[in-house]
Design brief:
Layout: E1 7-16, E2 25-39, E3 44-46, H1 58-70, E4 77-82, H2 93-108, H3 115-126, H4 132-137, E5 140-146, E6 149-155, E7 162-167, H5 174-179, H6 187-206, H7 209-215, H8 222-225, H9 232-241, E8 246-249, E9 256-260, H10 263-276, E10 281-285, E11 293-296, E12 301-303
Parallel strand pairs: 3-4
Antiparallel strand pairs: 1-2, 1-11, 2-4, 2-5, 5-6, 7-9, 7-10, 8-9, 11-12
Helix pairs in contact: 1-2, 2-3, 6-7, 9-10
Binding site for ATP: 86-96
Keywords: Amino-acid biosynthesis, ATP-binding, Cytoplasm, Kinase, Nucleotide-binding, Threonine biosynthesis, Transferase
Subcellular location: Cytoplasm
Length: 309
């Protein structure tokens, strides 16, 4: 990166699991974080809360780790973070930071931006691919790790589906959310999940609200994680009363998402949720086709395209 060049990396918000797709399914939304990098005599970070403006910032640490993997020397940066993604957890705020740091390091390397390699790096950093895959590629993704390499497929989401994101003013610790999930399940539960994961993927592709309603009922993690979210049951009830097709915990929470088969239903869900408590962050989101986009201030742009998977 030349001294006066500004690199802006735009990364979409994401939702992991989509109910039954624990640690495998992920979806990108049209809510995007924009993180700008320029060379600097010393590390400067702005645009984010004060507690993140230091060398422990996830954008910076991801950039440094990626440089090490690429055999490059990290250089001080002025990093400006502009993100509308709530920090309560569940919409991929950490994934946007990880992916942006990796993308910045790759831009400085001989090989340049490589989404497939970036996914391997990000999965290695995060431990699982469900959030970072849609952050890089956009769309609806299904991913698994095979021999250290992350394999990802991507699908388009049907027009007409709307996703009401509801974030409470408290967080759920990801480590706590993982601790409450059973480490072993019965064969019956495994079969239950597999059939419904395929069905939910098909329902999102085709816009089949009835199939989504029947299939998107998780037994693997949500029955345990909902106990960490005090408002879960009431918000689920009012969303279902407004005819949402499904109501899921986004990632490990605390954000929740009501999936609706029309914008009218989505607005009704949002209004109902406001009555539960007045300090909720509520936004109606649409799926994002584009994943990570890299833009230099000279207008050059790089991004992942649909046929790259």
């Amino acid at each position: 990166m030349l001294d006066n060049t500004i690199l802006t990396i735009s990364v979409p918000a994401t939702s992991a699991n989509i109910g039954v797709g624990y640690d495998t399914l992920g979806l990108a939304f049209n809510l995007r974080a924009k993180i700008a990098f320029r060379e600097s005599p010393a590390l400067i970070i702005d645009g984010c809360p004060e507690q993140f403006r230091n060398e422990n910032n996830l954008v910076w640490t991801s950039y440094v780790r990626a440089c090490e993997k690429l055999g490059e020397e990290p250089t001080p940066k002025h990093i400006t973070i502009n993100s509308p993604i709530p920090l309560s957890g569940g919409l991929g705020s950490s994934s946007t930071c990880v992916v942006a740091g990796i993308a910045a390091a790759m831009t400085e390397s001989h090989g340049g931006w490589d989404p497939e390699r970036a996914l391997d790096f990000a999965c290695n950093f995060e431990g699982h691919p469900d959030n970072v895959a849609p952050a890089i590629y956009g769309g609806l993704t299904s991913s698994f790790v095979d021999g250290g390499h992350t394999v990802c497929t991507r699908r388009l989401v049907a027009r007409g589906l709307s996703f009401v994101a509801i974030a409470p003013p408290y967080t759920v610790n990801t480590e706590d959310a993982r601790k409450v999930v059973p480490q072993e399940v019965s064969l019956e539960t495994a079969v239950y999940q597999m059939g419904r994961t395929v069905a939910v993927t098909h329902a999102l592709e085709t816009g089949n609200g009835g199939l989504l309603m029947a299939a998107c009922n998780d037994k693997l993690h949500e029955p345990y994680r909902k106990e960490l979210i005090p408002d879960y049951e009431e918000l689920k009830q009012v969303s279902k009363l407004a005819r949402a097709c499904a109501f899921v915990i986004s990632g490990s929470g605390a954000t929740m998402i009501a999936i609706c088969d029309s914008p009218v239903t989505a607005r009704a869900v949002a209004e109902n949720a406001k009555q539960v408590r007045g300090d909720l962050w509520i936004q109606i989101l649409e799926p994002a086709l584009l994943g990570t986009v890299l833009t230099l201030d000279d207008g050059q742009q790089h991004h992942s395209t649909f046929d790259e998977i």
